[in-house]
Amino acid sequence: MVGGLVRAGREIGPGQGPVTGADLLPVLPALADLLPHGAFRRGSVVATDGWSLLPLALAAGPAASGAWCAAIGVPEFGVAAAADAGLDLERLLLIPDPGGNWPQVVASLLDGCDLVLLRPPGRLPAQARRKLEATVRRHAAVLLVAGDWDGAQARLRVTAREWLGIGAGHGRLRACRVQVAADGRGDWSRARSRWLWLPGPDGSVSVADGVAPGADRPEPGWLEASAG
């Protein structure tokens, strides 16, 4: 239990009956169209393509709704960037270096946190991974992995990136527009994608309406970059 948090002791997993509001963790509005039901489903594992602002933005919605979150294995975690992305720092636990017994640290945090953001220090054997996934379901939490995770129900990745602020070889990077794609299994089998400001000029996350990069840009000073 963390900070007085109490959660019903029922196991939740993908495909276990109709989805209700109690089964979901809200995300930021800009990210809702990427997810089935417009939210995280409790009891699931969601993976992203490594450490970036994307997992921070994904964690911001649950924290803003009152959920407790933890970030593990990210010593360079930027609290200022997290706050700009909308993450409530008062509901965030930071464990920069969980040590060699990191799966047990993750399991312990899943007992008290609604969402655990993990950058795995190493690859788990299949049996240990499945045991941790069972812990996610038992505690009706969400494990958000910044990196590869073979058993993830969903994966989100940045497929294109374009920076605003560089023009004629000089200037300051002021904002980044990215295309985020989501796919996976079950409810996630229909691929989705969306252009987002990540971050926008004020550091926040929002929908990047308008045309795709390279056509009729709203102002000069764009720099295209591969997401690979």
Strand content: 25-35%
SS field, number of helical segments: 4
Our measurement of the CA-to-CA distance between the termini, rounded to an integer number of angstroms, reads 39 Å
Percent helix range = 10-25%
Structural class: alpha/beta
What does the largest sheet look like?
A: 10 strands, mixed
DSSP strand count: 12
The overall average pLDDT, rounded, is 83
**Low-confidence runs (pLDDT<50, min 5 residues)?**
1-10, 211-223
CATH architecture of the largest domain: 3-Layer(aba) Sandwich
Radius of gyration: 18 Å
CATH topology group of the largest domain = Rossmann fold
Q: What is the ordering of alpha helices and beta strands?
A: EEEHEHEHEHEEEEEE
Tertiary shape: globular
The CATH homology group name of the largest domain: P-loop containing nucleotide triphosphate hydrolases
- Name the CATH class of the largest domain: Alpha Beta
Question: Number of folding domains?
Answer: 2
Summarize it.
Helix content is 18%, strand content 30%. It has four helices and twelve strands, in the order βββαβαβαβαββββββ. A hairpin with an 8-residue loop joins β10 and β11.
